[in-house]
Hints:
Chain A is an alpha+beta fold. Helix content of chain A is 46%, strand content 14%. Chain A has 6 helices and 4 strands. Chain B is of the alpha+beta class and 105 residues long. Helix content of chain B is 45%, strand content 20%. Chain B has 3 helices and 3 strands, in the order H-E-E-E-H-H. A 3-stranded antiparallel sheet of chain B has the order 1-2-3. In chain B, a hairpin with a 5-residue loop joins strand 2 (36-42) and strand 3 (48-53). At the A-B interface, helix 2 of A face helix 2 of B.
Amino acid sequence: MQGNPNSNNRSTAALPSGQRAKQTGEDIWKSRTDKINAELFTLTYGSLVAQLVKDYEDYIEVNAQLDKMGYNMGCRLIEDFIAKSGMTKCGSFVETADVISKIGFKMYLGITPTITNVSPDGKEFSLVFEENPLAEFVELPDEAVRELWYSNVLCGVLRGALEMVLLQVECQFVSDVLRGDESTEMKVKLVKVLDEEVPAADE
Amino acid sequence: KHLNQFIAHSALDIVDEAMWGTNQMYLKVVDRFNDHHVSAYVTPSGAKFMLIHEASTGDVRSFFTDLHELYVKVMMNPFSEVNGAIDSHQFDVKVRGIARKYLSG
């Protein structure tokens, strides 16, 4: 019962939560998720971004739209996430980060971004993406390099999903290999913990 | 040097004819102009790669095969125009790399 890393028994409090999260994430990814062809997925997201760029012609606006779309996705995704993973409340924001990376991202994108730059008060952390399935084969046009955050939808998804579990956060990318930076990094900052209230109308 | 463009374009007609005669993608040397040889490679989607070179150049077939792979990757970029010019700097660098690797000149 104690210290068995392969046990799926989540009521065992003896396992370090990091290891448990990783195992849960991998199990769900292996057995309980439907898979889709990676190229189809990349091409779909790519044409979505390319079309937004053509329609809005303003990269700041495209970033905002991607974030909005992500937000709507996140609000709905969180239900699926909780249903599939059976997660209960996290003890701290840092634990939330761990769950996001090892279970959330693992379940939906098959990747586990690394958690870095945890602030001393535990209210901020960064996710560093070694690989990004959204951005395979993508090369940004010159005008976009300075202003477009290609994977900005992910920021919206996190923002929406966390808001549904009463954590108001700010997410933004600070670097992206598509822009020529060394790594792709997203900063997540906890703004406040929300009280239960009557949900506002959908935007 | 400016002649190269003419040579390539005039050989295009020959490529158009030759590509229907075979089910191979690599068409070898399709035309000769003085000491310039024109080799061609046609992809299933109809894109034509043409190389002007001297007779003694190295492994042209492998060059074209690798070039095809690079071309596919460029096409996968959502921001690329399907029939437009490829002005990606990365693509340019990589093509020069495989040219160095396979072609002696």
